[in-house]
């Protein structure tokens, strides 16, 4: 392993040596309760009480496994992004004719559109965070929200709301700045921005589709970076903000392929972020060479070497070898380990059992304890 600095390899702050992306498989009880609520058989209040009980159970499980950061598994959401975005002021959710196209499958039909001026005022996920915070105890409560880029990338912007692109991005950054402060005020010290747009900007096939939408991938990359930096600027010093970059995760399938090289410099040397969760569980993510753009000694790189798509456990020696490879580009002290994505980016979840999910997370903890003694 490469020489690392003398400071302890155990981390006291987020992201942690053994970490997780956020979403967890919805339990049978949650799935049933959501169906009952949709059918009008139980009230919103009854559903929330069931969610509370199930979230408490999975938070206890995360603690028992040895994770430092706990999440609510996104149990109150149907999607990793739309549920948050459609509760921003000026944004509406709606059903569409077709879903998001993945390899071999398609999601349910849903989308968001910007119909008015953007703002962050009374957002229901603040209460969701407060509940998680109240049961986290001495553990760190981790909140996940979609990156600002996702509203532009996945949303339709009505001309009546914004005819000027600069005004839209300015308001978007300001809206997120308010969101970050509101979560901080609710007690949040570990916030993650989930962003699939960067993976699209790494893929030649997807870049063609972006151009077909009349957008320029290079301009988009610069606009997204500027917006994220404006949104995260001036945040409190004791708040850690990470970003998760993913190539799609729905029922164990994916959308895009391509290494991080095309966006590596923008991400690692240009974004005001404390850590990156990077998908590295398959050769679709390319090699570790793009990590040479990590110049800041305080930037943490969380290697997503464990797959959340399938139940089989990885060989620990293979994982340690890959961490060793990554440490040729980034000091071991700046590396962490996690699954490449959540286990249920949408409520349907990936194709593995709850037992396999916990085994995967335990695997992450045990390997991290071994590597960062």
UniProtKB/TrEMBL annotation:
Going by the entry's taxonomy, the superkingdom of the source organism is recorded as Bacteria
Residues folding into a coiled coil are none
Classification via Pfam families: Meth_synt_2
Which SUPFAM superfamilies is this protein grouped with?
A: UROD/MetE-like (SSF51726)
Enumerate the spans annotated as Cobalamin-independent methionine synthase MetE C-terminal/archaeal domain.
20-369
Q: Which Gene3D superfamilies does the annotation name?
A: 3.20.20.210
InterPro entries in the record, alphabetically?
Answer: Met_Synth_C/arc (IPR002629), UROD/MetE-like_sf (IPR038071)
Q: What is this protein called?
A: Methionine synthase II (Cobalamin-independent)
């Amino acid at each position: 392993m490469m020489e690392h600095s003398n400071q302890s390899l155990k981390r006291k702050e987020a992201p942690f040596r053994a970490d997780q992306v956020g979403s967890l498989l919805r339990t049978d009880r949650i799935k049933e309760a959501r169906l009952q609520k949709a059918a009008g058989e139980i009230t919103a209040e009854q559903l929330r009480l069931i969610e509370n009980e199930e979230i408490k159970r999975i938070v206890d499980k995360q603690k028992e496994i040895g994770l430092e950061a706990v999440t609510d598994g996104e149990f109150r959401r149907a999607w990793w992004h739309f549920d948050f975005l459609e509760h921003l002021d000026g944004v509406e959710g709606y059903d569409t004719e077709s879903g998001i196209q993945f390899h071999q499958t398609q999601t349910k039909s849903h989308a968001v559109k910007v119909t008015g001026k953007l703002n962050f005022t009374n957002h229901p996920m603040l209460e969701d965070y407060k509940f998680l915070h109240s049961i986290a105890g001495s553990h760190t409560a981790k909140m996940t929200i979609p990156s600002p880029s996702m509203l532009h990338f996945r949303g339709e912007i009505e001309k009546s709301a914004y005819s000027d692109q600069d005004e839209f991005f300015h308001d978007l950054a300001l809206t997120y700045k308010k969101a970050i402060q509101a979560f901080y005020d609710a007690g949040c010290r570990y916030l993650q921005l989930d962003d699939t747009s960067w993976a699209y900007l790494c893929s030649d096939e997807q870049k063609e589709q972006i151009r077909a939408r009349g957008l320029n991938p290079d301009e988009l990359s610069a606009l997204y970076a500027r917006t994220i930096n404006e949104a995260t600027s001036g945040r409190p010093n004791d708040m850690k903000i990470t970003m998760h970059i993913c190539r799609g995760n729905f029922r164990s399938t994916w959308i895009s392929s391509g290494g991080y090289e095309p966006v590596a410099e923008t991400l690692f040397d240009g974004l005001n972020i404390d850590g990156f969760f990077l998908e590295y569980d398959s050769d679709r993510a390319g090699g570790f060479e793009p990590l040479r753009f990590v110049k800041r000694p305080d930037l943490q790189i969380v290697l997503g070497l464990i797959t959340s798509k399938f139940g089989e456990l990885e060989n620990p020696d293979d994982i340690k070898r890959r961490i060793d490879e990554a440490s040729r580009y980034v000091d071991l002290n700046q590396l962490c380990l996690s699954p490449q994505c959540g286990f249920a980016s949408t409520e349907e979840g990936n194709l593995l059992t709850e037992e396999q999910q916990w085994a995967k997370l335990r695997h992450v903890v045990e390997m991290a304890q071994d590597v960062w003694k």
